Amino acid sequence: LWLQRRWAAYLRHVVGIRLQQNGPKPLHSPVVYVANHSNFLDIILAYGLVPDYFHFMAKDSLTKVPLFRILFQNSHIPFDRHNPREAMRAFIRARNDIKAGRSIFIFPEATQNTAAPQLLPFKDGAFRLALATGVPIVPVVFHNNYRLLPYQRKLFARDTWGRPGKAQVSFLPAIDTRMSHCAPETLAEEVRVQMQECLNQGF
């Protein structure tokens, strides 16, 4: 993880991305981080945001991207959500990570959102994991990554190529799942609404 953090910091430096953060980082681990997802920049920035040891839990298609293949295949938790057995195996591994004191970082939209800043419906896996293990959920809001690195790029439109700048990120207050009696899908929707309100309010 130390090497991955250095790699991500180098990429941020090369492309001219600076982090600008609102809200306190959690003081204790493990936790389940949930964040909105519009492009690969979200992953790179997460390395500089999360203070404790953590693993990403993400779809296995990332292992096919040269930039992330080695990192995700060997260090994190890739899985095929269309394969119930593999998804269960990944869930058990994430649960064991939490028991060992490691945090988990999940993008509950489950894909890069081309409609940002409007959030897609959240999958409930992250919330099911947090409820099963009793650890807090920490929502993370990336405000403008979709502007810094647009999902759709046009050859002759320079403003769609991506640009340096300040990546604005908000940490919302941690949610104590031990006090929650919600079903995972209900909790997922409640957190999605909170994150959408944060996006609507701006940084």
Task: Please describe the structure with a list of short key phrases separated by commas or semicolons.
single chain, 203 residues, alpha/beta, seven-stranded mixed beta sheet, 7 helices, globular
User: How large is the share of residues in beta strands?
Assistant: 15-25%
Query: What's the mean pLDDT score?
Result: 87
Gyration radius over CA: 16 Å
Fraction of residues in H or I helices: 25-40%
- Cα(first) to Cα(last) distance is 29 Å
Low-confidence segments, given as residue ranges, are: 154-158
Number of strands: 7
Strand order of the largest sheet: 1-7-6-2-5-3-4
Largest sheet: 7 strands, mixed
Topology as a string of helices (H) and strands (E): HEEHEHEHEHEHEH
Structural class: alpha/beta
Shape: globular
Describe the structure.
The chain has 203 residues and is of the alpha/beta class. It is 38% helix and 18% strand. The protein is built from seven helices and seven strands. About 2% of the residues have low confidence.
In short:
The chain is of the alpha/beta class and 203 residues long.
